[in-house]
Batch of 2 targets.
Target 1
Amino acid sequence: MTRQTGAMVGLAATVSFLMGLVAAGSWPAAPTTALPAKPDRDVARPLMLGAAPRPLPATSGAGVDFAAVAARLNGAVVNVDAASRGTEERSRSAPQRWSRDLGDDPSAPREGSGSGFIIDPAGYVLTNFHVIEDADRITLTLSDGRAFRAEVVGIDPAIDVALLRIPDGDRLPVATLGDSDTLQVGEWVCAIGNPLGYVHSVTVGVVSFLGRKLFDPSLDAFIQTDAAISFGNSGGPLINARGEVVGMTTAISSQASNIGFAIPITQVVDVLPQLREHGRVSRGYIGVTLTSVTPPLRRALRLGSDRGALVQDVTVATPGERAGLRPYDVIAGVDDHPVRTDEDLIRYVSSRMPGTIVQLDVYRDGEPRQVPIKLTERPGLDGGRPRGPRDRGVRPVSSREYGPLGVTVRDLDPAMIQRNRIPDGVQGVMVSYVDPAGAGRLARLRTGQVIMEINRRRVTSAADFRAVTAALDPGTAVAALIYDPAVDGRLIVTVHLDGAR
């Protein structure tokens, strides 16, 4: 979601392999994200076990038919609802602003929502990592109203991406993935998502800038757009005029209302195999701080190359130090690939697995030399190795304590009836607690409501409630008749039970 970006853009002048902090928010919380530049190689197509819709014909300018684009893609866009019971300690990847937006109590229950899109008919869904971070329950709701409990397949906080899966998904609508490397400034795009909770909203704009750096100069390559993006759009698709997803909306500027940012889809596609197979992403790492060689630098330092990546610093106990790299070294090539800028080297090294040996073409004091270097794994956000769902304790959460509806109830007594002004004729049990990660919260059950019937069976006591709910079949939908004092009326709510207990 959002984060103040104005002050951070100036940091793009210095590039470091050591940086990797990612932060962003979701509706109703805040912050933003950072992402990596794509390696200079062909894009591998992801998953896609079934046939995706064919892209629409290419159009431009006033001829763009975004009504057709939205109709084609809308079914593949999902609402992502994430809830957490709270933890003793927030994730170390969350910035301070995250805590301020959610309150001072680090163990308080949290909830938020964002967007996502289906990339495979078997149920694989992409969204932002910050949307589902530390969630105990993730629910995906399709445009046709169907709701599914999702599991986390893999996460990559470094580029703010999460791969989810609907276990029971079958032949779901799929978004066609495009190639963000072909985007041009001024090209028309649209965004579909759930801004401010207004589900499946479509906004249109143009690509304003490509390769924008905001938070982590060593990885950033945002697509900037003036298509309206707000809280809740996080994780949704940015789509070109052909109906292809070219980005994942992830951040907006707090300085203006028409500046939004998206992760290039080719960067996301690059990490999908690792997310699916390992649950996390490993990137090669040298351990040097770089900047690009410029004509003024070349003249001032009398460098032997007019292009390349200039070493500014070498971190202790890293591959760079072990290989003997020094400040003022100019890296002009890697594995016979020319290095024109520091970003070229970063992209290439990040695309290689730890343990790979690469050959660097280095100029030192004007003299060329070759330096072999064995890559290690890029440190994670907390200084250690990147972590996947199993490492982070992401797990299916149980609601046994609160029953299949995810609520606790108590018998009505005269004092309670009088205090809550419950009218005559209302009999049932009062909701005393709603599990923040339970099925009832998503159905908008709230403390103080009175549950009168479940699937048309009357409930007159807490004992009745426990007996009726114990007989419910997992994975089914339950209709509950409630009295809500807030509206002074009766409502029928649908609760989708978890598939297993």
Target 2
Amino acid sequence: MSNFDLRPDFAKIPNVKPSFNVGALLDVVNGSIETGIYGESILNGGVSGISAYCGIGNNFKSTISHYVMLSAGSKFNHSTFSTYDTEINISEARLRVLTNRIEEFNGEDILSTGRWSITDKTVYYGNEWFEKLKDFLELKIKNSDKITVNSPFLDRDGKLLKMLIPTFTELDSLTKFNTKSSTTMQEDNELGDSAINMLYMKEGQAKKQMISYLPKPLQQANNPMFITAHIGKSIPMDPRAAPVKKLQFLKNNDTLKGVTDDFTFLTTNCWQCQNATPLFNDTTKGPEYPRNSDDNMKGDTDLFLVTLVQLRSKTGPSGLLMQLIVSQQEGVLPSLSEFHYIKTNDRYGLNGTLQNYSLDLYPNVKLSRTTVRGKIDTDPLLRRAILITSEMCQMKYLWHYLPKDLLCTPKELYDDIIKLGYDWNMLLATRSWWTSDNDKHPIPFVSTFDLLNMRAQKYVPYFLKPEEVPIACRHIPRLNVK
């Protein structure tokens, strides 16, 4: 064998593409574990690239898109958001309620401070907005040296992977996106004129050009994008013909309206909101999870259970079915969605009776159907315990490659962690989501996977001083901890 190097001389892409944590059951399904500089386990999952949410009207696709975008960006200082409303129906007062529900904003009114800018087609035609977006992405890439921060992920050389401060863009919706030329065509012709026949072809070409262009600059600028689209019914000319499906898990005769084929294969994740039903209690006919004892009006339709199907995913399983609880007034309720998930999965991690129970990871707080929502809103440790439990449940059912020594129940995790000498309430006072300069954040980082490794005596949290490490765990090697 000669010394000729058979490896082609191509520049390599980053070994990790950051994906942002959003909670509400959306991280594990599209995530994987990456090891950090201290040996910590980071859940690289949630959203990245282009995320799409489609459905018929009143199925909360816009509300879910707003939540996911804001939740992802709320973890990062200086992150910004922009929304282009093609349907001209967004209310800032409504959006302000949604932002107030996300605790990582720490009470900041991001609409007033300018972190979230809203515009619509009364201000810009679609092509004008797209040119403004291109200019922003190009400017961000050009000035990358000024806005580069450390991610917690390791590059190929074992150093912290650099990334640009993330920014986020939302297009709501692609279905109603149109350009100046197509609008002029509508204005210059009467209804029924033959010239109008070219309108949708012209709009389709513009949308195809835009969607085809975006993946590269969005990735380079670290600017995830969120797009909504409408679902309609296709009526076949031949009723005996087999239905044609552009996406395997799209319902028969459902069709994405006003989008191009690129939408179906250039999106990183595409979710269909297939069903939204009021979440009533079978007995009282009031909300299944009332805010308090007075919130029990029969027929109250504030809470909805929204069923989503992942039509396609480049980071997780396609065809996955999941449910989110959405309040018409408050938007997506992440912790309540996570609680409902474990409750309806054989009461995973819950102990007690059907009426009164507690979490195995937080046993001293008693819960019931009528009190859990109010306690979630007021107790951050409860929210943390619910998140850990729901992620353990998802990992059990979705991650079939977990090492056997990490597999355990929430009760086993709780008991064994305490036996090792850890303060469980201290561990609940941490965060699960990653951010830039992750180890410098005032709230220390401990992921669900870290907890499993701690129980297996494979990891000690990086932020503990040597004297704070339980005696039973002081033999465990620690990486890069001074």
